[in-house]
Amino acid sequence: MGALRQPRLLEGDALKRAFIARTQALGFDVVRIARPDGIPLAPERLKAWLAEGHHGSMDWMVETAERRADPRTLWPDVKSIILLGLNYGPAENPLAALDMKDHGAISVYARNRDYHDVIKGKLKDAAGILASKGGADVKVFVDTAPVMEKPLAQAAGLGWQGKHTVIVSREFGNWLFLGAIFTTAELPADAPERDHCGSCRRCLDICPTKAFPAPYRLDARRCISYLTIEHKGHIPEDLRSGIGNRIFGCDDCLAVCPWNKFAQTARETRLMQRDDLAALPLADLARLDDAEFRIRFAGTPIKRTGRDRFIRNVLIAIGNSGERRLAAEALRLLDDSSTLVRAMAVWALSRLLSPEELAHHAASRREQEEDENVRQEWDRALHREEAVA
């Protein structure tokens, strides 16, 4: 009996077609391919951004800059980079929750199961086609690795980086989760997408904290998404009022883009959407302890932020609400174990109580406070009230 014949491996266009067919079956909405040398301007742009300090406290951006700027430094054997998009377009206006001052607004992307978990499994499944049918090596990445997905997505033709630095698609507007597959397979590359922003600057002008020093440049230190999600410390006082009732992320610059007129509502089953996260009562959120927080937000990106930082954000929203009845929630949190929470409870009360009431509470707590940041928050609040008086 002769030896079994090995199945013929696919190459080029044939392998690309087989791969795309699999990604469509997995629910991806768009697939494009870039060359590893497709982002030649990225190294200098990244270097300038980091030099300006616009990365804030995201020190890993500096530590991984070399690998991030050139895909071939991350993996010298890579021959093709595949960018995949999964639509998460909202059914309703994502900015509607901003008018509900006694509720917290959650960014659209976080009203689903954690996209890292959703996409990574799908990417591994899709990448298996390249290995089994093409004999290629693969690596999959979803946001957490030093990969510049957005410039690569533009180089692949998936969309273009708008003036707000986020990928904009002519088919899906501003609502695409991105994933990347690096492979040793040589696949036909797609044509890059050109910029279609024109003279429009809606995304820049709507930003409540003025996080864009210029078109196509984002200062993360002023970005509400960075401040409420990535930033681990106390949020600068001059930015708190601009945060409004946004307690996890910000959709303003995405939601006002004119290209959203072509966007499509995401299919709920793929992302396990949570309709209960669109707008949440601040009073309920302020009462969450660590265990309750973990249960409430299990499986969502919100859980990764942790209870203390989340309650910090909730207290800023309470301070911005103008709802005096919410002062009771801030008063209770003056005794919280977290210094982040105690400091923002002081700030919230300074916005909701009279100078006399604030001084009364300070008298029993300011001198007993051991944390310097919280004491400074008391001092600023009392000084502010004295100045107003």
What structural keywords apply?
three-stranded mixed sheet; four-stranded antiparallel sheet; elongated; 389 residues; 2 domains; alpha+beta
What fraction of residues sit in β-strands? 5-15%
The computed structural class is alpha+beta
Termini Cα gap: 99 Å
Quick check: average pLDDT? 92
Largest sheet: 4 strands, antiparallel
- Number of strand segments: 9
Question: What is the alpha-carbon Rg in Å?
Answer: 24 Å
What strand line-up does the widest sheet have?
1-2-7-4
How many H/I helical runs? 19
Unreliable stretches, pLDDT < 50, 5 or more residues? Answer: none
Looking at the chains present, what oligomeric state does this protein adopt?
single chain
As for the number of domains, it is 2
What secondary-structure arrangement, pairings included, does this model have?
Layout: H1 12-26, E1 30-34, H2 42-51, H3 60-63, H4 65-69, H5 71-74, E2 80-87, E3 103-106, H6 115-134, E4 138-141, H7 149-156, E5 160-161, E6 167-168, E7 176-183, H8 202-205, H9 224-230, H10 237-243, E8 246-248, H11 252-255, H12 268-271, E9 279-281, H13 282-286, H14 290-296, H15 307-321, H16 327-332, H17 339-352, H18 355-365, H19 372-388
Parallel strand pairs: 3-8
Antiparallel strand pairs: 1-2, 2-7, 3-9, 4-7, 5-6
